Each structure stands twice: as C-alpha cells, then as structure tokens.
Amino acid sequence: MLAAAIDLFETVGYPRLTIDAIAARAGVSKATIYRWWPNKAAVVMEAFLATVEPDLAFPDSGSTRDDLVEQAAALSRLLTERRLGQLVLALLGEAQTDADLATALRDGWQRPRRDAGREVLQRGVDRGELRPDCDSDLVLDGIYGPIYLRLLFGHAPLDRSDIRQFVDQALDRVTRGPSGDV
After folding, report:
1. At a CB cut-off of 8 Å and minimum separation 6, what does 142 contact?
2. Which of 35, 39, 171, 179 has the greatest number of CB atoms lying within 10 Å of its CB?
3. Containing structural domain, residue 22
4. Model's pTM, two decimal places?
C-alpha cells in the first residue's frame, strides 16, 4: 500500500491521488487502507517517511557540530539528489491548502526531526560543548531554515561547505570555547 501511494503520488500528484486509486494499485480494499490510516495525507506521509527515514538519522560521533553537519548534509542530499526532493516540495506546497497534510507533515516529518535535533544539542550541552542556555529551536531554525529556503527557491546550491557554514553560524552564539568561555 505504501509503495502504491508513492508510485501514484509521483504519477498523478497529491491533489489527484485518492484512496480508491491507492487501493486499486495495491490490490486491497478501501476499508483495508482506512483500517490503518485516517486519510490520504497519512498514507502519503508514512510512505514517504518509510522511504527516507534510514538516511536521515542523526549520528552520535561525540561532536555536536559534526553530527549536525552530517545529518543536515544527508537531508540536503535527499532533497536535491533524489526524486524525493520534488516530493517534499510538492507536499510542502499542498500543505498550504490541505490541513490534513499540514498536520501530517508537522507530526510525521518536522516534529520527530526537531526532537532528534534537540537531543543532539542537549548532548552537546551535557558534554560542555554548548552553553546550558542554548535555545535549541533557534539553533535548529538557523541550520534547517536556509536548507529549505534554498530548496524552495532554488537560488543557490546546497553543498557541504554551505551546510558547514549554516551549522557554524547557528552554533556560534551557543558554543563554548576550549576554556569553557562563551
């Protein structure tokens, strides 16, 4: 069912995608789909996440900066080098007028990634790399905001040196120096 949802999404787009079409493509009944998912947004999000999740986990190398760079670089690769980047753009666009999809994106895509990012930053605080008053949400916005901006507008590439710079700028105010000073 998830493969059918992704295939149809790529073929007909989100607005024309229906539960009936997913059921027909997967060879199951609509009732079977509704037993597992409340709406098409939930099906599409789960299908999308099942496809990308393995590539987007945060590493734990012992360096907050390196972990953020690695994960942000993986996200950038996914968004720019694979068909899934176009899928994300389409989902973000459709979410502007589809409340179910907007909720599915927030709950399934954004919130889990931000929670994982907060854990990485908390490890940095615990190791003494970051100040205890580090505002995790602002740091994450400073890293991932430019990535999504470049994805949406396509005005500049997303290469590894840019990712490092986004991370460095976001961590600049919250990083402790070698002596523990700010």
Report:
1. 166, 169, 170
2. 171
3. 2-40
4. 0.82
